[in-house]
C-alpha cells in the first residue's frame, strides 16, 4: 500500500501546482487585458503544432500548405492554411523613405501570409501570418469570431513569443466594432453622389429615360473587382505599433489590410456587387 500512497501524493501535488492561480507578476501584467476583455487566454508560441502538407502533384515555390493546431478558450482549433497570393499585386514592393526623402527597398516574405479554414467547420474562414517566433490569426466560425495576436501588442512586456487569443464578443468596448445598419452606404437619397449632369438628366427625363439610365448603371465590368492600395505608415505607427522595426511594421500593416480585404470580398453591395476587394501595391 505504501507505493500506491506515494504515487497518489505526488499526483495530488502536481495537480494542485497545475491548477494554481497566476502569480502576482502575471496578475499585474494582465491587468490591462482584463480592462479590455471579459475573457482571454495567453499561450506560448511553442503550444502551436505545425505540419507542412506535401502533395504528389507539382507545387510551385510560391505555394505553401500547413496544418496548424492548438487548444484555447475551452476548445480545439485545427486550421488548414495555404499561401495567400491574393494580398499583393504582381508589381508589389515595399520601401522605406528616410528623412531626406530617399527610398530603400525592403524584402517581404510573401510565403508568411496564409488563408484557409477550420477543419471540419463549414463556412469558417482564417487569415493568418506565421513568422519565426510570432503568429497572428483571425478565425471566423459559426460559433464566434476569434482573434490571435502577439501579446506585446497589448502589454508592456517585451516580445517573448507569447500569444493572446480572445473572442471579438468579449471586447468590452464592443461599440467601436459594431457594423453600420446597412452594408455599403446609408443615405435616404444616394443620387447626390452622382455628377451634376447625370442628376439633371434623371430629374428632367421621362420615366422611360430613367429606366434606360438605370439599365446603363448596371453595365459594370465585374472583372475589375480589385483596388490596388498604396499604404503609408508614419513614424508614430512605426515606433509604437511596429516596435521601431521595419519588418514588424510591414507585417502589421499587411495583416490589417488582409482583414479588410476579407470583409470586402465577403460582402454583397446592393445585391449587385460581390467579390470586390483590395490588394497591396506598395
TrEMBL record:
UniProt keyword Signal present: yes
Signal peptide feature range: 1-19
SUPFAM superfamilies hit by this protein: Metalloproteases ('zincins'), catalytic domain
GO molecular function: metalloendopeptidase activity
GO cellular component terms, A-Z: plasma membrane
InterPro entries: ADAM_Metalloproteinase, MetalloPept_cat_dom_sf, Peptidase_M12B_N
Keyword vocabulary terms for this entry: Disulfide bond, Integrin, Signal
GO BP annotations listed: integrin-mediated signaling pathway; membrane protein ectodomain proteolysis; Notch signaling pathway
Occurrences of domain Peptidase M12B propeptide (ranges): 47-118
A Pfam family of this chain: Pep_M12B_propep
Keyword check for Transport: no
Listed name of the protein: A disintegrin and metallopeptidase domain 17b
Amino acid at each position: 500500500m505504501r507505493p500506491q500512497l506515494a504515487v497518489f501524493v505526488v499526483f495530488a501535488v502536481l495537480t494542485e501546482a497545475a491548477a494554481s492561480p497566476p502569480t502576482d507578476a502575471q496578475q499585474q501584467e494582465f491587468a490591462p487585458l482584463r480592462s479590455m476583455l471579459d475573457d482571454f487566454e495567453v499561450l506560448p508560441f511553442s503550444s502551436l503544432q505545425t505540419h507542412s502538407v506535401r502533395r504528389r502533384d507539382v507545387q510551385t515555390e510560391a505555394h505553401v500548405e500547413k496544418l496548424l493546431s492548438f487548444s484555447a478558450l475551452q476548445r480545439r482549433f485545427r486550421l488548414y492554411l495555404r499561401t495567400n497570393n491574393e494580398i499583393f499585386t504582381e508589381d508589389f514592393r515595399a520601401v522605406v523613405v528616410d528623412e531626406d526623402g530617399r527610398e530603400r527597398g525592403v524584402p517581404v516574405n510573401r510565403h508568411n501570409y496564409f488563408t484557409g479554414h477550420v477543419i471540419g467547420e463549414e463556412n469558417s474562414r482564417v487569415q493568418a501570418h506565421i513568422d519565426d517566433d510570432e503568429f497572428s490569426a483571425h478565425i471566423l466560425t459559426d460559433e464566434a469570431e476569434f482573434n490571435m495576436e502577439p501579446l506585446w501588442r497589448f502589454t508592456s512586456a517585451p516580445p517573448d513569443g507569447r500569444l493572446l487569443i480572445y473572442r471579438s464578443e468579449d471586447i468590452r468596448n464592443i461599440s467601436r466594432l459594431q457594423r453600420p445598419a446597412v452594408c455599403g452606404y446609408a443615405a435616404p437619397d444616394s443620387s447626390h453622389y452622382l455628377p451634376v449632369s447625370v442628376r439633371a438628366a434623371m430629374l428632367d427625363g421621362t420615366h422611360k429615360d430613367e429606366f434606360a439610365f438605370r439599365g446603363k448603371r448596371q453595365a459594370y465590368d465585374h472583372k475589375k473587382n480589385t483596388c490596388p492600395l498604396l499604404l503609408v505608415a508614419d513614424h508614430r505607427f512605426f515606433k509604437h505599433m511596429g516596435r521601431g522595426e521595419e519588418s514588424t511594421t510591414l507585417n502589421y500593416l499587411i495583416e490589417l489590410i488582409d482583414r479588410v480585404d476579407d470583409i470586402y470580398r465577403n460582402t454583397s453591395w446592393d445585391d449587385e456587387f460581390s467579390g470586390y476587394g483590395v490588394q497591396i501595391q506598395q
